[in-house]
Amino acid sequence: MGLAKKHIQELKSQDIGAFLQENTVNNAYIMGLLENLGRLPSSFNGDWLVKLLDNENSGIRFLAVKNLGKLKNDCFLSVLNNVAINDSDTNVRREAVSAIGRLRKLNSKEILFNKLKDEDPKVVCQAIRGLLVFKGMEEVDKQLKPLLNHQNEMVRQVIRKEYFSSKETNNPQKHTESYDYLKNIVVHGDTIETMKLLKDESVHLTFTSPPYYNARDYSIYPSYKYYLEFLRNVFQEVYRITKEGRFLLLNTSPVIVPRVSRSHSSKRYPIPFDIHHYLMEMGWEFIDDIIWEKPEASVKNRIGGFQQHRKPLGYKPNTVTEYIFVYRKSTEKLLDWNIHQYDDETVKESKITGEFDTTNVWNIDPCFDKVHSAVFPIELCKRVIQYYSYKNDLIFDPFGGSGTVGRTAKTLGRYFFLTEKDEKYFSYMKSKFSFELGDDCPAKFMSFNDFKGTIV
Ligand SMILES: C[S@@+](CC[C@H](N)C(=O)[O-])C[C@H]1O[C@@H](n2cnc3c(N)ncnc32)[C@H](O)[C@@H]1O
Predict the structure, then answer these.
(1) Rounded to an integer, what distance in angstroms lies between the CA atom of residue 402 and that of residue 400?
(2) Which pLDDT band holds residue 312 (cuts at 50, 70, 90)?
(3) Taking burial as the number of CB atoms within 10 A of a residue's CB, which of 44, 319, 325, 420 is the most buried?
C-alpha cells in the first residue's frame, strides 16, 4: 500500500526531518515518501534529504538525490558532487550528475567538465546533457567537441548530433512520396542489378525473405561465405534506396544442409546471426527481433529419433520459429520526425484498429503453395506492412517469389516494387495478380531492360 497523498501533503508542510527523527519508520515508508513527494517549493528544507545520502539502501540514496535535484539550489552543489564522486552505486552517481546538470548554474560547469572523464558512459552522457545548456560558450564547446572521438558509441552519437550533423538531406523528393515508375512494378531480373538503377531514398519499407542457403533448388551458392557476401551486397543497396529513418524487416532462420552420407553429419547454418553483423556494419540500426511461431504439427519432425532412444546429445527439437529482425536506416532524427511528415488524414487512415500484437512472438500458420516452396503467409505480410508503413508508402521486396508482399501491400492501400530473377516464379506471380477494371495503378510486369527504359 502506498502512502496516502493527504499524509504526504501534510508532511510537506511540516519539518519532515523532525518527523522522521521522532517516529520509527522503515525503509519502505521512506521510499514511499521520497517517491511521492512530487513538486517541491524552492523554500523547502532539504537538509533531511542530505542525511539520507548516507543510508545503506541505494534506492533511498537515489531518491534522496533526485529530490535534492528538484530544489535547484546550488547550496547542495558540493554535496551532490561528493555523491557523484564517492557513491558506490553507479545509478546514484548518475542521478547526482543529472541533478547537478539540472541546476543550470554556471558554477556547476567545472564539476561537469570533470565528469566528462568518468568511466561510466552514462555519467558522461548526463554531464554532457548538463553542459549542453551552455552550448555556444567557447570553453564548453571546447570540452564537448573532442568527445566525437570518445570510445563509447552513445557519447559519440550525442556529440555528432549536437555539433557535427548536416541537418538537411539532399533528397529532392518529399519523404512521403515515391517515384511513379516504381509504383506497383515487378521486375524480372537480378535484384542488385535492378536496385542499382534506383535513386537514393526511393522506398519506405523493405520486407523480405532471402533465398535459404542451398536448401531449395532456387538457392544454390558455391559457398556459405559467397552467400553471405551476396546478401551483404543486397542489403547494402537496400540501405541506399531506403528513405531516411525507415525500416527493413528481414525474415530468416537457420537452415540445415543435409549430410553427404551416413558417415557425415548435416550442417546447420545460423543465417540470421551471421548476416546481422554485416547489417550493423553498414549502418542499419537494430530495433527488434520478432519471433514467428508456427504450430508444431506444421513443421518437419526432427524429435522422433530422440523420442525413442532418449539419449543425451541426440536431442533435436522441432523448429517452430523463424526470425523477423527489424532494422532502421540510421538517422539522427527521431521516429516522431518520420511520423510528422504525414498529413493528419494519412495518419488517421493508417492507424491500426482492433487487436494487435502486444509481444514479439507472433503465432501465425505457415502457408503452403504448390508452385513456390517458401511463400509468406498473407497474415504475416499484413502485420508487417500495417505496423511499419503508412498508406501510399512504397513497399519493396527484393526477393519477390510468388509476390505475397506486393499483393498484400496493394490490398492495404500501399504501393509495391518487387524483383524476382527466376522466370518460373515471375510468371507464377503474374498469374496470381488480379487485374481489375478501374484500378488506377495496376501491377506491371517488366523485363529488366524495359524497366531500365522507364527510369527518369
Ligand atoms: C524465399 S523466396 C521468397 C518468397 C516470397 N516471400 C513469397 O512470399 O512468395 C526467395 C525468392 O528470391 C528469388 N531470388 C533469388 N535470388 C535472387 C536475385 N538475385 N534477384 C532476385 N530474386 C532472387 C528466388 O527465385 C525466390 O523466388
Answers:
(1) 6
(2) very high
(3) 420
Q: How far is the CA of 399 from the centre of ligand 1 (A)?
A: 4
Ligand 1: does its nearest atom lie under 6 Å from the Cβ of 375? Answer: yes
* Cβ atoms within 10 Å of 80's Cβ, excluding its own: 26
Interval between CA 363 and ligand 1 midpoint (Å): 24
Answer yes or no: are the C-beta atoms of 429 and 420 closer than 8 Å: yes
**pLDDT by residue (tens digit) across 138-153?**
999 999 999 999 999 9
Domains of the chain: 5-164 (1.25.10.10), 180-454 (3.40.50.150)
- 421 in ligand 1 pocket by Cβ < 6 Å? yes
Task: Count H helices and E strands in the chain, helices first.
Answer: 21, 11
Reading the block at residue 140, the C-alpha cell is 564548453
Count of CB atoms situated within 10 Å of the CB of 440: 4
pTM of the predicted structure, to 2 decimals? 0.88
* pLDDT at residue 3, as a whole number: 67
Q: Would you give the DSSP letter of residue 252?
A: E
From CA 126, how far away is CA 155, in angstroms rounded?
10
Question: What's the CA-to-centroid distance between 208 and ligand 1, angstroms?
Answer: 9
Average pLDDT rounded to a whole number, residues 95-108 = 93
Strands 321-329, 284-293: pairing kind = antiparallel
How confident is the model at residue 218, as a pLDDT? 62
Measured CA to CA, the distance from residue 432 to residue 74 in angstroms comes to 71
Say which residue, 416 or 71, is predicted with more confidence.
Answer: 416
